[in-house]
Prior knowledge:
Layout: E1 17-20, H1 23-28, E2 35-40, E3 48-51, E4 62-65, H2 73-82, H3 85-98, H4 100-119, E5 120-130, H5 135-146, E6 151-158, E7 173-180, E8 191-192, E9 220-221, E10 225-226, H6 248-258, E11 264-267, H7 274-281, E12 285-290, H8 294-306, E13 313-315, E14 332-336, H9 354-361, E15 367-369, E16 376-378, E17 382-386, E18 401-405, H10 406-412, H11 418-435
Parallel strand pairs: 1-12, 1-14, 2-5, 2-11, 6-10, 11-12, 13-14
Antiparallel strand pairs: 3-4, 5-7, 6-7, 8-9, 15-16, 17-18
The structure holds S-adenosylmethionine (SAM).
Amino acid sequence: MAQITDSAGAPNFLNRTLWIDDNLKVLSGINSECVDLSYLDPPFNSKRIYHAPLGSKAAGASFADTWTLDGVKTDWADLQEVADPAVYHTVVGAGLSAGESMQAYLTFMAPRLLELHRVLKPTGSLYLHCDPTASHYLKQLMDCIFGRTNFRNEIVWSYSGGGVPRGAFARKHDIILFYARSKDTPFNILRRPYGEHNKTGRRATDRGGTRKLDYHPDGAHMTAVWGDIKPLVNWSSERTGWPTQKPLALLRRIIEASSNPGDVVLDPFAGCGTACIAAEQLNRQWVGIDIDTKATEVTMDRLARECGDNTYTIGDYEPRQGKLALADGDNRVFVNQNPPVRTDPDRPTRSPRIRTIRWHELGTGERRPCPGCDRPKYFDDFDLDHIQPRAKGGLDTDDNLQLLCSSCNRIKGQRFTMTELRQRLQTEYLRERTNT
Ligand SMILES: C[S@@+](CC[C@H](N)C(=O)[O-])C[C@H]1O[C@@H](n2cnc3c(N)ncnc32)[C@H](O)[C@@H]1O
């Protein structure tokens, strides 16, 4: 079937698409330069495993924030393939100064940040939510990928409440790194009323996201230290129980500052969909990705509760045809378990990540069956092989590349097709059986 080609910058997804998959696979399939704003709240390298409390709407959701080099083997292979020396040395350097876990964490983050940079429009913005555990390493990585001159702000989200952490000065803040894709990236300056106080004489805060914060055209230019947005507490009405859920007010602020109605917002670590819900409330289009299947149910529940009187339904997945926007009154959400296929004119004929894409296709588990001999093999045991040998006219394109274990690859070499390889393996197997 002939592949569709869209014009440059056209998205290959519909508004309100939620992908349940590894975000690297999904991002690799998204067209270049079609997203206006990305917010991401990845694991922070906290060395913890998070579980949603039993009985909460998110019960069953969990994610691990522990990192080893062994656990990121395929991401490491991606990093080598992408071959960006600055990125590579930043990751390795972080390993030297902060140890293996930090190197593994950045190995996971680097290919995802490279993809996010690619999918942003030249006028796009990215907000990376992290904390001081890794913010300085992530900033260096972002400088390599976005360029140092495109750094806009280090936002400090300062909050109170909860326990008092140990340490010299108690840490009560997160860091949000804000980068523009280029000097042409627009920004809506947000202003708060001068000396805004509530009746008790205290400065007005968001109270855990229950009240919408207003911005005022003649007020004071907001600074990068945000102390007026409370973290969610157990009794906050918007709390779902999703581990590390962020307040809607935080996301609304980011979306209002760096996008306009109709723009496309992408959250690749969507969790319980906070960025998606805020985007919906502010009439932006959105796409979310999360690896946890529970994300669909919780996001659908929040859409019903927090996005006005609309009735949202799950629609069958459809590839985008023509416009990205849905018609007025079309409140479908497209939940998709398959990564998208790029349709933009600059899609490569050979993906830099083809090795890991093919690895994922071989199934799950530490060892996966070799397409030649069927024996289970580790990732490192496989070579990338041209299905139709190059000597016989095979092209160096994704559809002609597969993984084969090294011993099958040696036998197949430049001479055999897959059918010939299997015949040969069968003959050898029969010969061995006869001899024993
Ligand atoms: C810190 S939480 C995000 C919380 C979110 N901001 C919210 O308010 O609900 C990180 C999320 O990343 C998801 N995640 C971790 N690794 C992922 C991956 N490789 N691809 C997609 N999602 C992933 C986890 O399932 C988790 O929901």
